[in-house]
Design brief:
By secondary structure, this protein is mainly beta. It has 3 helices and 11 strands; from the N terminus they run E-H-E-H-E-E-E-E-H-E-E-E-E-E. The strands form 2 sheets. The chain has a 6-stranded mixed sheet, covered by helices on one side. It has a 5-stranded mixed sheet with strand order 5-6-7-9-8, with helices on one face. It starts with a strand and ends with a strand.
C-alpha cells in the first residue's frame, strides 16, 4: 500500500492552520529546515512522526534537528537537507551531491520545485512560513510506492 509523506520547509516559527490541514492523514512529516522554533515540531508531531533538519537560521544544536537525514520509505532512499550546504541549491546540485538518493527533499529557496530526472525525484515544498519573495506559501504531499512517486504542491494561506 502506498505511503503519503508530508513535506514542509521554511516555517520560520509560523505554522499556519492551513498547513496543518494540508498535512492531515500523512504517514510521516519531513521538515526541510528553517523551522524557527521547537513548537512547530511539537504541533506537527500531533499529526504524524516528524523528521526535521536544521536550516541556515536554525540553531544546529537543537536535538530534534539533524544536519541532514536519510530515510527509507516504500523502497525509496530519501535524503533530506535544507539545501544551503550546496550554496544556492538546485536539483542538479543536489542530485550530484547525493547520488544514492532516489528522492531528495530540500528547502531554503522558498520556491516550490518538482524535478524528475530518470527514476530520481527532487522536491522543494516551498516556504510554509511568513510570506517572502512574493511567493505563495505551500507544502507538499508525496505518495510513494515501490518505483513510483506522485507529488502534489499544496498552496496554503
Amino acid at each position: 500500500m502506498p505511503s503519503t509523506i508530508g513535506l514542509i520547509s521554511d516555517t520560520h516559527g509560523l505554522l499556519r492552520a492551513s498547513a496543518m490541514r494540508a498535512l492531515e492523514g500523512v504517514a510521516l512529516i519531513v521538515h526541510a529546515g528553517d523551522v524557527g522554533n521547537r513548537d512547530v515540531l511539537f504541533e506537527l508531531a500531533a499529526l504524524a512522526p516528524v523528521h526535521a533538519v536544521h536550516g541556515n537560521v536554525d540553531d544546529p544544536h537543537v536535538p530534534e534537528l539533524a544536519g541532514h537525514r536519510w530515510l527509507s520509505v516504500e523502497g525509496w532512499r530519501v535524503h533530506v537537507s535544507h539545501g544551503h550546504e550546496v550554496g544556492r541549491p538546485s536539483p542538479a546540485l543536489l542530485l550530484r551531491r547525493y547520488p544514492e538518493a532516489g528522492l531528495l527533499v530540500f528547502g531554503h529557496t522558498h520556491r516550490a520545485v518538482v524535478h524528475r530526472e530518470g527514476a530520481r525525484l527532487v522536491v522543494n515544498p516551498g516556504a510554509a512560513g511568513p510570506r517572502r519573495f512574493d511567493v505563495t506559501p505551500s507544502v507538499a504531499r508525496v505518495t510513494l510506492s515501490p518505483g513510483q512517486a506522485e507529488v502534489e504542491i499544496v498552496p496554503i494561506d
